[in-house]
Design brief:
Layout: H1 2-9, H2 20-44, H3 49-72, H4 88-98
Helix pairs in contact: 1-2, 2-3
């Protein structure tokens, strides 16, 4: 939960670097919260209102942590635009998000691992 809150505190910070742990923990908690909201919506029979509101609220932090994760592997945040390419873009981004950090400092800042 600490990693999820850290991303939310850096709401629109696109500079710097994010470790794999930070990105994937945010992704995990984001998925869990979305599933819980979907279950609550189906129980209450209220449509997809809660999920849409939540998605809008976490859209910018999701982009920011994705850009910082790409920075950690030495890539520009603009690589996120690959996600607009169906299927292939998602696979390439998944590979980039799974790659380890660049050793030492890079042009985006100090290595957050150390």
């Amino acid at each position: 939960m600490e990693w999820y809150l850290k991303v939310l505190k850096n709401y629109a910070v696109f500079s710097g670097r994010a470790r794999r742990t930070e990105y994937w923990m945010f992704f995990l908690f984001n998925a869990i919260i979305s599933i819980i909201l979907s279950i609550l919506q189906s129980i209450a029979n209220i449509g997809e209102v809660l999920t849409i509101i939540y998605s809008i609220l976490v859209f910018l932090p999701s982009l920011a942590v994705g850009a910082r994760r790409l920075h950690d592997s030495g890539r520009s945040g603009w690589w996120l635009l690959l996600g607009l390419i169906p299927f292939i873009g998602t696979i390439i981004l998944l590979i980039f998000f799974c790659l380890d950090s660049e050793e030492g400092d890079n042009r985006y800042g100090a290595n957050p691992k150390y």
